[in-house]
Amino acid sequence: MTEAKRIAAEKAIEYVQDGMIVGVGTGSTVAYFIDALAQIKDKIAGTVSSSENSTAKLRAHGIDVLDLNETGPLSLYVDGADECDPNKCLIKGGGGALTREKIIAEASETYVCIIDPSKRVDVLGKFPLPIEVIPMARSLVTRELTKLGGEPILRDFTTDNGNIILDVHGLQISDPVGLEREINAIPGVVTVGLFARRPADIVIEGSEPIQVW
Ligand code: 5RP
Known about the structure:
Shape: globular
Distance between the termini: 19 Å
CATH architecture of the largest domain: 3-Layer(aba) Sandwich
CATH class of the largest domain: Alpha Beta
Helix content: 25-40%
Bound molecules: ribulose-5-phosphate
Radius of gyration: 17 Å
Low-confidence stretches: none
């Protein structure tokens, strides 16, 4: 799938216009996008990054990383996904950066999602759903998620925001918007890795031939 990720990432460069501040996601597909962005770094006004990892990679290429509070709304966000359904609803957070990713997606006019073909599904939920949680709420949120029919497993990971991640196994997500709302309402949940209320706008799938939909 490495080649498919690279193909999707390089295609996304076509959406970058002169003078843009580009929102940049996190993950191995985005890593290819950052490499491609470095080739045209003089053309853009900077980036807003969704993780410390992406920030380090962007800065290593000499690309400016700006504060979202200073930039205002963005025209373009480019990020990957763990699963993508036919409505462009996503599961994200496999890399643990879901909160900053969701903030930038919300602040962006166009979210271009770059995936390899393995990410495409009819129904979301085979990939365990990541949820960022305030540490003191771990057991409360675990109980609530179990009531929803999932099996939450604590990831051995601390987010860039100092929180924990619960990966919820065994969900068949037939109503992504409703489930996103329901999980968001549990006290202690910072972010659920369902991107359904604000899905992707354009999906680039690095298949052979490449698909854009
Ligand atoms: C990180 C994410 C990533 O977009 C997702 O995990 C996909 O990663 P990759 O491109 O490495 O397959 O949501 O939080």
